[in-house]
Prior knowledge:
Blueprint: E1 7-9, H1 19-28, E2 39-47, E3 51-59, E4 64-74, H2 77-93, E5 98-107, H3 110-120, E6 125-135, E7 138-147, H4 167-173, H5 176-189, E8 196-200, E9 205-209, E10 212-213, E11 217-221, E12 226-230, H6 236-245, E13 248-249, E14 261-263, H7 272-285
Parallel strand pairs: 4-5, 5-6
Antiparallel strand pairs: 1-6, 2-3, 3-4, 6-7, 8-9, 9-10, 11-12, 12-14, 13-14
Helix pairs in contact: 4-5
Amino acid sequence: MDFIKPERLWLKDHPELDEKWVQARIAEDPAMLGLGELVLRDKERTQPRAGRLDLLLQDPEAARRYEVELQLGSSDESHIVRTIEYWDLERKRYPQYDHCAVIVAEDITSRFLNIISLFNGSIPLVAIQMSAFKLGDKVALLFTTVLDEVRRGLVDEDEEVYEEADRTYWDARATKSTVALCDDLLKIVRTFDPKLDLKYNKFYIGLAKDGHPNNFVIFRPKKDFLKVEPRLDQSEEVDQSIKAAGLDALAYDSRWGRYRFRIDGNSWKKDAAVVTDLIRRAYEAA
Length: 286
């Protein structure tokens, strides 16, 4: 097998491959950033009195948007300020979404990484370093997250902000059959702790013990399926387990630290072993 040594390219100095080229490649496949299975909502998005946002990406499952700013070369003050400004404008214009600011640069220096980390405690902010390599007559882009957003408080730590609901609400919002899948999974949960019960909230069905939330796994019934979301740190081992089982997996929710997958009444029992294992892992990690 032939070996080709990759040649590092600095796109800031490249005569042909400019920021527009990088923008187009990400727009074609937003997943290359490593933020999940995102879709392109807009590029060169005009901001009132503030220029243009390079890329607006969205997680269609989590109703979450990412305001992405690109910079060839090293990150600088104006890049950081611009990224945060665009994030702030978008979140105010579209408050129905969660928003995350994303800085992409060829070189995020330690100095600016320290500056960015100061904002990261109060602003959902991700810094990604981009590297370009020439392989023969091809060019490859590699994106590495050097600063991830600080994970926010878990839903059960501030439960009062979520409106309570009941079974009737969910039967009408989804279907009785998909809500009934929660009963099946509750049986699994109770093998770990028989005192756990379903707790119905407006946006999800969680768990509670003696009236106190314990949401190591939550459920979101839909018309045709049930979304299951165990809280687990992402790992290669869990990724491979899900892939090997053939679960209908969704993008990992890095904001809340949850794996997400879909099951339905016709097929989920063939995957019962891996579903049980994922819920058990989440229970043990809680």
